[in-house]
């Protein structure tokens, strides 16, 4: 069986995550210690004790998710010689994917994750940006609704095409609130704000992307050992310039996850293994393509399940 690794981004974090794995595999706390030392923040304490408000701050969430995914990838490598034939990361998860595939060191990736989060956090004033998930509206109807609200300087855009009938919007907080109300009036099954502190992947992130370009230029990259489908291009980079350019563009470009999964399937993968906590992507995959098997590796039982599936 050919399988893909997919890496979750913001929104999958929670207080207490990866605790069970840490009790069985010492590499979990070792990864968090290395990440904490790199940015001088006690990430493990934040993950295990909270508060959630601190964990959900973008500059904290990104290195926390990187450490979770990297440690799970190392557990996988110690458990089997079987490796993914293709990878992708959802939003920030793309940074995790490149790290786990050897495109940069974990130390450098942690610093990059922290700076990426800081650039995003500082791109808009606190409280002025937001994101929301909308379920049950057609993509075109939601796009038109965003356009109708985006007047007089207000910005709201569809930024994550996560699954059929499940799209995330981002922009100014007041515009997001207005869209939530209008989407429900137009028949959306659900419309709710997400636990993130910035309007990721919207045009409001262009100042952050410009600063992120400078941070990327300071990191030494190699091509990954496995092809990684990038959010902004729906293609694997052919050189490191393409890699970093797409990582920069990703900050203000939509995440086309439905198309990403279709690309992975076309490449021959029949199983998707989510390398990180939360099970968010596994839930999306059931809505995108039921012919693909999908499992999240987030605790001992799910690790055992995933290892059995790949041997079928």
Short description:
This protein has 312 residues and is α/β, with parallel strands linked by helices. It is built from 14 helices and 9 strands. Strands 7-2-1-8-9 form a 5-stranded parallel β-sheet. A 4-stranded antiparallel β-sheet has the order 4-5-3-6.
3D structure, described in words:
This protein has 312 residues and is of the alpha/beta class. It folds into two domains: 3-123 and 204-309, Malonyl-Coenzyme A Acyl Carrier Protein, domain 2 (3-Layer(aba) Sandwich), CATH 3.40.366; 132-196, Malonyl-CoA ACP transacylase, ACP-binding (Alpha-Beta Plaits). The protein has helices at 19-24, 27-39, 43-49, 52-55, 58-79, 93-100, 106-123, 139-149, 173-185, 206-217, 240-250, 257-266, 280-288, 300-309; strands at 3-7, 86-89, 129-135, 156-163, 166-172, 190-193, 227-229, 271-275, 293-297. Strands 7-2-1-8-9 form a five-stranded parallel sheet. It is globular.
Keywords:
312 residues, 14 helices, five-stranded parallel sheet, Alpha-Beta Plaits, four-stranded antiparallel sheet, alpha/beta, Malonyl-Coenzyme A Acyl Carrier Protein, domain 2
Biggest β-sheet: strands ordered side by side in the sheet? 7-2-1-8-9
Q: N- to C-terminal separation?
A: 7 Å
Given helix and strand content, the structural type is alpha/beta
Shape: globular
CATH topology of the largest domain: Malonyl-Coenzyme A Acyl Carrier Protein, domain 2
Q: Biggest sheet, in brief?
A: 5 strands, parallel
Relevant CATH superfamily of the largest domain:
Malonyl-Coenzyme A Acyl Carrier Protein, domain 2
**DSSP strand count:** 9
CATH architecture of the largest domain: 3-Layer(aba) Sandwich
At the first level of CATH, what is the class of the largest domain?
Alpha Beta
- Helix content bin: 40-55%
Contiguous uncertain segments of 5+ residues: none
């Amino acid at each position: 069986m050919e399988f893909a690794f997919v890496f979750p981004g913001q929104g999958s974090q929670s207080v207490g995550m990866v605790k069970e794995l840490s009790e069985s595999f010492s590499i979990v706390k070792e990864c968090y210690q290395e990440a904490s030392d790199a940015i001088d923040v006690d990430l493990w304490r934040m993950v295990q004790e909270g508060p959630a408000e601190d964990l959900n701050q973008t500059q904290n969430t990104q290195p926390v998710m990187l450490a979770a995914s990297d440690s799970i990838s190392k557990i996988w490598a110690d458990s089997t010689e079987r490796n993914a034939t293709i990878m992708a990361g959802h939003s920030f998860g793309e940074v995790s994917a490149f790290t786990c595939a050897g495109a940069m060191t974990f130390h450098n990736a942690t610093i990059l994750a922290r700076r990426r989060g800081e650039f995003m956090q500082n791109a808009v004033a606190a409280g002025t940006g937001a994101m929301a998930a909308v379920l049950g509206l057609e993509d075109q109807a939601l796009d038109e609704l965003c356009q109708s609200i985006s007047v007089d300087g207000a910005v709201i855009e569809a930024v994550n095409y996560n699954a059929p009938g499940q799209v995330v919007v981002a922009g100014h907080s007041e515009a997001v609130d207005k869209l939530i109300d209008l989407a429900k009036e137009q028949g959306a099954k659900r419309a709710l704000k997400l636990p993130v502190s910035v309007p990721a992947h919207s045009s409001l992130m262009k100042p952050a992307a410009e600063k992120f370009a400078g941070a990327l230029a300071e990191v030494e990259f190699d091509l990954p050992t496995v092809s990684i489908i990038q959010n902004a291009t729906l293609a694997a980079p052919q050189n490191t310039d393409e890699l970093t350019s797409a990582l920069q563009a990703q900050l203000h470009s939509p995440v086309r996850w439905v198309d990403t999964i279709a690309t992975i399937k076309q490449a021959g993968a029949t199983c998707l293994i989510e390398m990180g906590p939360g099970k968010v992507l596994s839930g999306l995959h059931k809505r995108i393509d039921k012919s693909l098997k999908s499992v999240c590796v987030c605790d001992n039982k799910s690790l055992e399940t995933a290892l059995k599936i790949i041997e079928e």
